[in-house]
Amino acid sequence: MIFLLDTDTIIYWLNGNQDIEKKVTSVGIENLAFSIISKAELYFGAYNSDYTEKNISSIKTLSGKLTIVSFDDKAAMQFGIIKSTLRKQGLPLLDADIFIASIAIANGLTLVTNNERHYSRIQNIEIENWIKKEDHT
Predict the structure, then answer these.
(1) Which of 22, 75, 110, 113 matches a 20 to 30 Å C-alpha distance to 96?
(2) pTM as predicted
(3) CA 25 to CA 32: how far, in whole Å?
(4) Domains and CATH numbers, the chain
(5) Is the four-CA dihedral 12, 15, 18, 23 of positive or negative sign?
(6) Residues of the chain falling short of pLDDT 70
(7) Rounded distance between C-alpha atoms, residue 36 and residue 97, angstroms
(8) What 3-state DSSP class applies to 66?
(9) Which pLDDT score, from 0 to 100, does residue 134 have?
(10) DSSP string of 2-23?
(11) Paired residues of 78 in beta bridges
(12) Is the dihedral of CA 36, 100, 56, 52 positive or negative?
């Protein structure tokens, strides 16, 4: 199984989140990918930060280790379906999230995100969250 890491998950991982690190070790780095949309979002974050060069270096390192999944015709069709469905339901979602979800669905990938609330609005998407939830009981 190939996992598509959402931008938020990548940021947690790059910031040293141990839950994600353990899961990466468990599933194998060869089974991880991220989208060209997440890469664009990461570059925006890098250029918008106080640590531009360090963050760009992290993006380049990550890009050398993981497969980058592009936005293609199948994903474009999924984008149209998802966005129109959500609009008709009155459940707007940021285009970047729809692009990422479209790539996951079109390629049969499981999306790894901590943003389950947004992505759960989308039909036919497989989602996992690798961030442990705190037990408040």
Answers:
(1) 22
(2) 0.93
(3) 11
(4) 6-128 (3.40.50.1010)
(5) positive
(6) 133-137
(7) 12
(8) coil
(9) 57
(10) -EEE-HHHHHHHHTT-HHHHHH
(11) none
(12) positive
